Amino acid sequence: MSAAPSITDAVLADRYDLVVVGAGACGLVAALAASDAGCSVVVLEKLDSPGGNTTLSTGSVPGAGTRFQREAGIEDSPARMVEDLLRTSGPHDAEHLVELMAETSAEVIEWLVDDHDIGLHLITDYKHVGHSVARLHAPSDRNGANLTADLVRAASRAHVPIVTGTPVTSLTTADGRVTGVVAETADGVRTITAGAVLLASNGFGADRSLLREFIPAMADAPYHGAAGSTGEAIGWAQQLGATLANATAYQAYAAVATDEGDILSWTTVERGAVIVGPDGRRLGDESVGYSDFAGVIAAQASESYAVMDERIHDYVARHEPRFVKIIDLGRVQRAADIEELAALIGCEVSALEATLGTAAAAAGGMAADEFGRTDFGTGGALEAPYYVCRTHPAMFHTQGGVSVDRHARVLDGSGEPIPGLHAGGGVAAGISGRAGAGGYASGNGLSTAVGLGYAAGRHVGAANRAD
Ligand SMILES: Cc1cc2nc3c(=O)[nH]c(=O)nc-3n(C[C@H](O)[C@H](O)[C@H](O)COP(=O)(O)OP(=O)(O)OC[C@H]3O[C@@H](n4cnc5c(N)ncnc54)[C@H](O)[C@@H]3O)c2cc1C
User: Fold this and answer.
1) Which atom of ligand 1 is nearest to the CA of 427?
2) In this structure, how many other beta carbons lie within 10 angstroms of the beta carbon of residue 156?
3) Per CATH, is 15-206+399-466 categorized as 1.10.3630.10?
4) Choice from 26, 32, 54, 447 to test ligand 1 binding pocket (greatest atom count within 8 A of CB)
5) Which pLDDT score, from 0 to 100, does residue 7 have?
6) What pLDDT digit, counting tens, does each position of 211-246 carry?
């Protein structure tokens, strides 16, 4: 991973064309887009470093019809992306955003790479959950910290100040228009006036009381998202009349490997690993995806075990440093045979033999899988020696939020934009269905972060030029 650039202490002006609340992917992309259009922009970040959930993510952003796909011989289109995402999510409250994300995704990725030197590379070695073609573009080591670092560097080159340790605490309004923010700066509480404000401060995954209200099933689950996702900006927008959409949707993760939140890469499962409970029996169809499968596990057990073989283990270790990290932490154990594997899990050998035998028959195409899984990756039947990782399901981030239009303008109950107020990323309605974790396709989180950030930044830029 390349070193994160330092954030210099910026001297805050009294007014900006765009004030961005939150320095994750949404806020930083919006800042770049608005700055490209000649706007003065500041990004205010409440924590001491930028990045939020973006830094914790794999940095994988979907793009349909990019030149990187064409170079790799992959045929894709916005229509295909829309079809894929709606197949995964089912009908929901923000389908216009699915269309917008798909239509602009290639343009945004190419702009980030070409104009701002953001390191995004097409992932071609497997298709992600919910996508019928290779479509996700990520830092080469799939580490979101590098996406953040690249965006921060680009903001620095564009002379956009990112002011950390500066929580925004409320919005200011006049005559029904949002006119700025109140922030706790190093010099005390300040009001900063803005031509427009973008709420890019993510959702409410870190706030147990909001989870209890909207997503009670996950209110007590371990939370492994960023500390800053406490949802206050959604409340400010609601006070101004904003409505919520897809508010009970979320993304969870089925296989967290440490109490600190290090994940077992889902590539292991996509290449053929199976997940068993403490009794050595599988818990369901793992191929529903890491988000949906978290709920499957949580309903049956508080911990589970991912079982893979050496081919899968070595493949993922070659490609993913975060997998190497959990190996180095001693979280992945080797078992020469089923007896050793059962001892590591603490289950009956006979139960594990039955589980792996049935899964092998399904993976080899000799029998239908007991849970309906049809995709066992490229590995076929698992063979000794085995590797096992004890994991637990956890809440990652919320996917619902305030209703916005195609310019990321926040909408009131009549569907009219609230003047001066934009929202994107986790503050805005997501594209992962109306409820639960099942509608989440890989990349949906960064899709609305990057896509709505771009839409907001460009809209503010265009409005500014017209004034
Ligand atoms: C472990 C993990 C893995 C993931 N992997 C992926 C993936 O590969 N692909 C994908 O699409 N999605 C992924 N996601 C989801 C994705 O990370 C988020 O959906 C996305 O990063 C949201 O971007 P954002 O800019 O809206 O929010 P963030 O990146 O969280 O940025 C919001 C920022 O706002 C700041 N903030 C909050 N409140 C205030 C305030 N009052 N004043 C000032 N600043 C404030 C926060 O501190 C934070 O820095 C993952 C999430 C997790 C937790």
Assistant:
1) 26
2) 15
3) no
4) 54
5) 53
6) 999 988 788 888 999 999 999 999 999 999 999 999
